[in-house]
Design a protein that fits this description.
six-stranded mixed sheet; globular; alpha/beta; 25% strand; 3 domains; Rossmann fold
Length: 411
């Protein structure tokens, strides 16, 4: 296919020994929401295979889809929709300031800045900001809200527009799993920073994915699945000092990586202690990795059974995140199981989930057609959703939360 290419080399170290971990077969693009059910059922599918580098241990997909298909045309995710993530970004900006990582009136650049939510948190603390994002709709929203945003892919051209060596602080959140040329991106970030400038980013932590079986965070937009050791090895070679790693609960489990441009490539004791703990975790456990597919199938069979136990009742879904496409495929969930899905994001309402063909409606539909049960596809926001819906229905409603562990919460 012209729109997809096989990846033969490790995207971090360049090693040529890539071993498959789990193969999900041909899967539709999760953000390619369609305007008709027929279009959703016929949406193009692409290989989705998770590989591991035999040299440095980095995890990545075995194929890359043309990024223009992923981001530049039909991309509908908005950072500002999830209340808990907005709070997380506010807390993050406060953390960065309290740690003394930014000088007064610092220039902060956010790579993959989306609708500008993160940069607003730095703006209100008195810092200058610049966003970079290739998705046209979120970038348009950010610019309209007063967050200057370059609507382009990040790389040498973006560095030239912003100014090499002019930036005090570079950040990104759940973005550096997405970029097509990872090594070029890291090198461009290094070029963008002033000497002594700070690079702090958050990404999905693959150790948390394994521990909690969050397989649905594997999709075509996420080309890389990070853990600390391969990152530390690569970033220190570029000339970053590794200052520390932290794990937080954001987006189902994220790794916050903190480093500084020094040209020396040192590893602080705190960062080294984290690396030592990680070497004994599931991310390096061969037996665990070989058994992972079975664990995934067992959990999805339980979710399907929870839905089946409510046959004859009205079952809807909440949230149409990218991850819902793979989850519905593996669990075998379609319109016969879930009548419709509601979304708070107006850009998604009125469309259909690819492959399953489940209709997406505005959240107001829940009041018009109260369900007996709701499958929470946006499970990482389950607490937010439960709090928002509690007391809103005339009868008890079961929330089926598929991950990390399938469970039911009754409102």
């Amino acid at each position: 296919m012209a729109d997809v290419r096989a990846i033969a080399l490790c995207r971090l170290c360049g090693g040529d020994v890539l071993r498959p971990i789990v193969d999900f077969g041909e899967v539709a693009l999760g953000n390619n929401l369609q305007e008709t059910r027929a279009g959703a059922l016929e949406a193009a599918r692409y290989p989705l295979v998770l590989m591991r580098c035999g040299s440095c241990g980095h995890f990545q997909l075995g194929h890359a889809v043309d990024p223009r298909l992923l981001y530049a045309t039909n991309y509908t995710y908005l950072t500002g929709v999830g209340a808990s993530f907005v709070k997380h970004l506010d807390d993050y900006a406060g953390w960065a300031v309290s740690k003394g990582l930014l000088p007064k009136d610092a220039l902060v650049v956010d790579i993959g800045s989306n609708d500008g939510t993160c940069l607003k948190m730095f703006q209100k603390r008195g810092h200058r900001v610049q966003g970079v994002d290739p998705a046209s709709k979120p970038a348009e929203i950010a610019n309209a809200d007063g967050v200057p945003t370059l609507n382009m892919f990040f790389g040498a051209d973006a560095v030239a527009k912003i100014g090499a060596g002019t930036v005090d602080y570079v950040t990104s959140h759940n973005v550096l799993a997405h970029v097509d040329d990872l090594t070029l991106t890291f090198a461009s970030i290094y070029d963008l920073l002033k000497p002594g400038g700070v690079f702090c980013f958050e990404i999905g932590y693959f150790q948390e994915v394994l521990t909690n079986n969050l397989f649905d965070t594997i999709y075509h937009e996420h080309l890389d699945y990070h853990h600390a050791e391969p990152l530390a090895r690569h970033l220190t070679k570029l000339g970053f000092d590794m200052l520390g790693f932290e794990v937080n609960a954001s987006q189902g489990g994220s790794l916050r990586t903190l480093c500084r441009k020094t040209g020396q490539g040192n590893i602080a004791p705190e960062a080294e202690a984290f690396l030592a703990r990680e070497r004994d975790a599931q991310v390096n456990n061969k037996a665990f990795l070989e058994d992972w597919r079975r664990q995934i199938e067992d959990k999805m069979a339980r979710v399907k059974a929870m839905i089946g136990e409510r046959a004859g009742k009205r079952i809807a879904g909440y949230g149409a995140p990218t991850k819902a496409t793979l989850l519905t495929k593996v669990a075998g969930i379609g319109p016969g199981d879930v009548a419709y899905v509601v979304e708070d994001n107006a850009l998604k309402a009125g469309r259909f989930l690819p492959t399953s063909g489940i209709a997406i409606s505005p959240s107001t539909r829940l009041g018009e057609e109260p369900p007996d049960a709701l499958v929470i596809f946006a499970w990482n926001f389950a607490d937010d959703i439960a709090a928002k819906l509690r007391g809103k229905f005339p009868k008890p409603v079961d929330l089926i939360i598929p991950l990390p562990t399938p469970r039911i919460v009754t409102l």
